[in-house]
Amino acid sequence: MSNFTVNIVERPALKTAGLKVRTTMQKASVDCPKLWEDEFGPRMATFPCDPAAPGASYGVSIMLDSDTFDYWAVMPIAPGAPVPAGMDTLEIPGGLYAECPVDSLAQLGEAFTFVYMNWGPAQKKYALNMQGASYEMYTAEYMTSGKLTIY
């Protein structure tokens, strides 16, 4: 297992818009990249982004039961901008999050496993909200560095 670090941080609520797919733990490795590559990714260049978060995008998971979840590919939407056709809005809740930097997309599954199976159960002060939102944050630098952060 890679050497991941976790910090507790306060994150603001964030108004976003994008597309979602309902998937399962078994199908996510196909469904989630397909959402980015085939549907959301091609529309990112024309998205009305919030100028306060240039180039930021998020992959948001919202658990529906122990196996099924909605996975969203979203970007912060500019205040007052219309939601692009065929997309829906999603507010990412603000609050305390476990923040884990990830060196590459190839380590994403390993990082989530570390947070949920190792770090979380070992906590005395914090408890993971298994029904809350978890998300990957891709900054504008992601395309050159490959680094992302999970919350």
What does this entry look like structurally?
This protein is about 20% helix and about 35% strand. With about 150 residues, the protein is α+β, with helices and mostly antiparallel strands. Strands 1-6-8-7-3-4-2-5 form an eight-stranded antiparallel β-sheet. A hairpin with a 4-residue loop joins β3 (about 55-65) and β4 (about 70-75). The longest helix has 13 residues, at about 30-40. The mean pLDDT is about 95.
Largest beta sheet, briefly?
A: 8 strands, antiparallel
- Distance linking N and C termini: 19 Å
Give, in order, the helices and strands: EEHEEEEHEHE
The helix content is 10-25%
Count of helical stretches: 3
Task: Produce the secondary structure layout.
Blueprint: E1 7-11, E2 14-24, H1 28-40, E3 57-63, E4 68-76, E5 88-92, E6 95-102, H2 108-119, E7 133-138, H3 142-145, E8 148-150
